[in-house]
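Entry:
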Amino acid sequence: MSSSNPPRRRQFRFFERLRVRWAEIDAQHIVFNGHYLTYFDTAVGGYWRALALPYAATMAQLGGDLFVRKATLEYLDSARYDELLDVGVRCERIGNSSLTLHCAVFRGEDCLVHGELVHVFADPAARVSRPLPQALRELLQGYERQESMVQVRIGGWAELGGDAGPIRQQVFVDEQKIPAEMEWDAADEVCIHAVAYNRLGRPLGTGRLLEHVPGVAKIGRMAVASSVRGSRIGRELLEALIRTARERGEREVLLHAQLSAEGFYARQGFARRGPVFEEAGIQHVEMVRTI
């Protein structure tokens, strides 16, 4: 793509927002040219999260890995210290064993730098190319067609506990150090569970729904694997649980939000009610939403 016809923001579904750091500018007081490849690479990591694909686990599942074969950049303008940039990524071409990602750095609507990263799918040990798996090909094409990257299943513990349990163990017990005896309770056997799966069938997030008092449902045990946080999985889980509560005739849902997650729930229509309190050694606040 020539500089006379640079890419436009509307051509990209995915963006990663970055702020220019002091260490990234050069003697000309602009971002050093080599850092734009780092910007591209950072955004590509976000692109994989948007695809709901934990990168290392996905490549192991597919039996290969992606290696950069070629990188090209075209410089149109310069970014400066402390500016906010949006780095767009889209899958532009898919070959037999390769895929081409088009990346572009935007300041507002203006494209500053754009280019292509050509990746080859190959055996990680022998470094011999392999055909790109059909499942990955279809997933990339689906994302660029604006399709959802996760499916949320609703069911009981007998059906979903085998997938929900390891996620909760990882997030609450291993990561947040909540005692195991506080994590597992009798409510698991009687409440409704939700598990989010990516398009390769990997479980990535979970939550549960139970009756609090007549007409009021309580959402709890919301957990998303750390490798894919920030990729709408939590939102889709929450929407599925709220929809289930509404179908059951509930008029309100409440939850105990960790303070670090209060902003997320507020963006989904929940409002704080009452003071901050401690639960399992972590500060929480009760939040409610009318449905």
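Residues 150-290 form a domain with the Aminopeptidase fold (CATH 3.40.630.30).
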